[in-house]
Specification:
alpha+beta, 4 helices, about 45% helix, about 20% strand
Length: about 120
């Protein structure tokens, strides 16, 4: 019985520590998603636009990027996909949370970020 209580308390503490999970998911690449965001939530639209612009100016797969968007736009859980789409320019899948909404988009990488062939 004690083990059960300890496990239950541990799970409850982990959920409190993790904070609230995003309740909504918005794929910004879907047709009309940006326009709907602009119309329905102008404040999130302003912040999302800034984050997407920043993602084209600095590498989104770094800890520095996550720190900058947390400080500038109050965005949490910034993650940039490990897989690099081999287009020109290369692209990655970016996700971040604003309030209770998880936003996802494919972003172009900086032109200076190029794959270097293995020797």
């Amino acid at each position: 019985m004690r083990v059960f209580v300890v496990l239950l308390l541990g799970c409850a503490a982990a959920m409190v520590y993790a904070g609230p999970a995003a309740k909504h998911r918005v794929d910004l690449d879907k047709p009309g998603a940006i326009e709907a965001l602009k119309r329905e939530n102008p404040e999130h639209f302003r912040r999302v636009s800034g984050i997407l612009t920043l993602a084209t100016e600095m590498p989104c797969h770094t800890d520095n990027f996550a720190n900058v968007i947390r400080a500038r736009f109050d965005a949490e859980e910034a993650k940039c996909g490990v897989l690099l789409q081999t287009s020109d320019p290369a692209k990655r899948r970016l996700s971040f949370v604003l309030g209770e909404t998880n936003y996802v988009s494919v972003v172009k990488m900086k032109q200076t970020e190029r794959l270097v062939p293995a020797k």
